[in-house]
Give the backbone structure.
Amino acid sequence: MPKDLALPDNVSATAAKDSPRSIGRVLNVLDALTDSPRGASLTELSQVLQIPKSSLLVMLKGMQLSGHVKELDKRYRLAGGAFDLAFKILATRPDASTLKEATQELWARSQETAVLTTIDRERQMVTYIDAIESPESVRYTVRLGITRGLHCTAAGLVSLAFQDDAYIDYFLSTAHLQRFTPNTMTDPDALRDRLEKIRRDGVVISRSEAVLNSIGIAAPVINAAGRVDHALLIAGPVERMDRRANELVAVVRDVAAKASAVLKNSG
């Protein structure tokens, strides 16, 4: 049975009486906010969660005090505490140490920003869950927890390419292929052809498709079940990355293949 959450000291006795204390409801709030990257109003959350506004407001105030939620312009968003919790949970996975070591090796060998991503199949995105930034003064910077589309980033493209055919068909028939730059691919048929090539090559280079003047190179990490849940990515400015493109492709492919082999043997 879940235990009641302790309410903050400054929450009144009346509020405490009316407050929903179920840990399940708190988790539902966090889950709802993950589906609202631009934030959600009290009214929107109340409608989605079917919780009275008065009770929900008390809960949100407690989550603000704990650092898991923040309010800006009357819209609630996930805050640093929620992301810290997510990363701590991910770090308990059996494959976490292998993936972290792979990210570190990728950074050491490339000296570009190295990123570990995970695919969210339902939301049709990848999330950046670990990163080490390049020591160069001009570099690709990453905010952990940020999400990117599957069709317009190196990590997204390689993650999508290595899903099963049924999921790829579903994605191509339902996804909104938003254009972010002139290089973003938005034609489903062209994207399908590209995904087939990525699967053959085992690596992808993305040039200025989500962010102008940047290049991403990514390869899949295949787990013991033969699934691709994670990808390894390096990213940096076009001019520097282009000069080393062949070298960096080989590095990304090699590090991802070694991580995949470790996960396969440990499964």
Remarks:
- The chain is about 45% helix and 20% strand.
- Residues 1-20 have pLDDT under 50 and may be disordered.
- Residues 114 and 132 are 5 Å apart (CA to CA).
- The chain has two domains: 13-81, 91-266.
